[in-house]
Amino acid sequence: MEKDFFYPRRNFASLPPQYADFETSKVVILPIPYDSTTDWRSGSRDGPMAIIDASQYLELYDHELDRESYLVGIHSLPELKPSMRGPEQTVERVYKVARDLIRKKKFVVMLGGEHSLTLGMVRAFRERFDRLSVLQLDAHADLRDEYEDSKYSHACVMRRVIECCPIAQVGIHSLSLEEHEFLAQHQMHPFFAQGLPLEEKAIVAALSEEVYITIDLDVLDPSIMSAVSTPEPGGLSWYEILRILRHVAQEKRIVGFDLVELCPREGPSSCAFLAAKLAYKLIGFSTFSP
Question: Among 68, 146, 186, 214, which residue's CB has the most CB atoms within a 10 Å radius?
Answer without folding.
Answer: 214
